[in-house]
Amino acid sequence: MKTIISKSEQDTTKIAAKIAEKLKGGEILALEGDLGAGKTTFAQALGHAFGIKKHITSPTFVLMKVYELGAQSSGLRALIHVDCYRLDEPQELFYLGLEEYLNNPNSVVVIEWADKIKNYLKKFKKVIWLKIKTTRNGREFLVVRH
């Protein structure tokens, strides 16, 4: 476990960039935190760190968005952005085709409100939990590898 402090949106952008540098493909970034904790801001910063120019918005109502990365030297081809906030049943995500991206070496999946599908994610090896907590001094990112 490692705790990283973010005092601003710029700090969150730097944190996302450092994490993006370490991702090789097939990872699932499981974001957990209260409403307004910074999950979407982190996902946006991660996408920009991967070179996505498009405005990244939360997929709250569509549940999942796929962002193509183009030719990356790392072999990554897509960032999959998932939001489980309005999810009634985990199966909804799989009807959308999420399973084809999980553990896929050509993609990274970032999941907001991942705690809603925590039991399902236990079967995957490359899950990195980011627990985001709002504090008086900013935000704390607790990074937990499973």
Structure description:
By secondary structure, the protein is of the alpha/beta class. The protein has one domain: P-loop containing nucleotide triphosphate hydrolases (Rossmann fold, 3-Layer(aba) Sandwich), CATH 3.40.50.300. The protein is built from four helices and seven strands. The chain has helices spanning 9-22, 39-49, 91-95, 118-121; strands at 2-6, 28-33, 64-68, 78-83, 107-112, 127-135, 138-145. Strands 1-7-6-2-5-4-3 form a seven-stranded mixed sheet, with helices on one face. The termini are close together. The relative contact order is 0.26.
Cα Rg:
14 Å
Q: Number of helix segments?
A: 4
- Quickly count the domains: 1
Would you tell me the structural class of the helices and strands? Answer: alpha/beta
The proportion of residues forming helix, as a percent range, comes to 10-25%
Q: Please name the fourth-level CATH homologous superfamily.
A: P-loop containing nucleotide triphosphate hydrolases
Q: What spatial order of strands do you see in the largest sheet?
A: 1-7-6-2-5-4-3
Secondary structure: number of strands: 7
Outline, from the CA principal axes?
globular
- In the CATH hierarchy, what is the architecture at level 2? 3-Layer(aba) Sandwich
Just give the CATH class: Alpha Beta
User: Mind summarizing the main beta sheet?
Assistant: 7 strands, mixed
What is the first-to-last residue Cα distance? 10 Å
Extract low-pLDDT stretches. Answer: none
CATH fold field value = Rossmann fold
Mean pLDDT: 88
Element order, helices and strands?
EHEHEEHEHEE
Share of β-strand residues: 25-35%
